[in-house]
Design brief:
78 residues, mainly beta, 21% strand
Length: 78
């Protein structure tokens, strides 16, 4: 990931913060956020609503589940 990261709030329930998304990401520097290089980053959906499809970091679906790493290093959505 590059030095200039975008922070995406976990509360938005986008692919970047979902346990099914395999794209590049890290726990954000502020609570309740995920760090991504760009909103256009892609990763495969593994077990979610778009299983087997490439999805962008800012995509969403009704099968969102919080990325478990965020439960330890971030704040889960309300």
């Amino acid at each position: 990931m590059s030095a200039a990261l975008l922070l995406q709030p976990v509360a938005r329930k986008r692919c970047a913060s979902c346990q099914c998304w395999s794209g590049p990401r890290a726990v954000g520097t502020t609570p309740g956020s995920v760090a991504i290089a760009a909103e256009t980053d892609v990763g495969l959906c593994d077990g979610g609503g778009w299983h087997g499809s490439e999805r962008r970091a800012r995509s969403a679906c009704g099968h969102w589940r919080i990325w478990p790493v965020l439960l330890d290093g971030g704040t889960p959505p309300a």
